[in-house]
Amino acid sequence: MDEIINRVANSNLQNIDLEDFYPKGKRVVFDIKDWLFEGLILREKDFRQHAETYDWSQLQDSYIAFTCSADAIIPSWAYLLLTTKASPFAKKCIVGDLATLETILFSEIIQHLDTTRYTDKPVIIKGCASKPIPESAYTLLTQKLLPVAKNIMYGEACSTVPLYKKPKQ
After folding, report:
1. Which residues of 113-133 are buried (b: 16+ CB within 10 A; e: fewer)?
2. Tell me, what's the pLDDT at 4?
């Protein structure tokens, strides 16, 4: 009987699963529509009062996406004020939706990713995530790997899609 050998495990293939980098923490969409006068107008005095009396501690270690679902014009300073209140508790505050929040989080993660271990190695970027990994994260990761990787593939070791092969010098 021949021994079964896992050639993938014994190869120099480097697998990157973006789920491994997924930041832990609650995601919160903080909609300010209820803080508007008649759901349409931001009154500074009332808005400041809401921001002052809100229990920001309930957002401890959260990632916050500030938004307004009402069709209202919100001055930029309003989101800045909310950021000053939430920042002592939140891990991150942005203006936008959850997709924008995830995009920003992964942009920062990939920007700081040390790619030295992938130098001159074939790399597989794992697809099919169960967590909300933005499509842009895969693009940013590919761009980050281009200067260092020997090959870049997408998928699983058993069925990859070749994306890039470093030219021979």
Report:
1. eebeebeeebbbbbeeeeeeb
2. 58
Q: What is the mean pLDDT of residues 10-27?
A: 91
Residue 18: φ, ψ to 5°: -60, -20
Task: Identify which of 2, 23, 84, 95 has the alpha carbon closest to the alpha carbon of residue 48.
Answer: 84
> pTM (2 decimals)?
0.86
Per-residue pLDDT of 53-66, as tens digits, reads 999 999 999 999 99
Q: What is the dihedral of CA 33, 35, 37, 42, to 10 degrees?
A: -80
Q: In what order do the strands lie in the sheet with 63-67?
A: 27-31, 63-67, 92-95
Q: What residue segments make up the domains of the chain, in order of their start?
A: 7-23+103-165, 27-90
Instruction: Enumerate residues 6+ apart whose C-beta is below 8 A from 145.
Output: 115, 118, 123, 125, 152
Comparing CA positions, the residue from 166, 165, 115, 123 lying closest to residue 144 is: 115
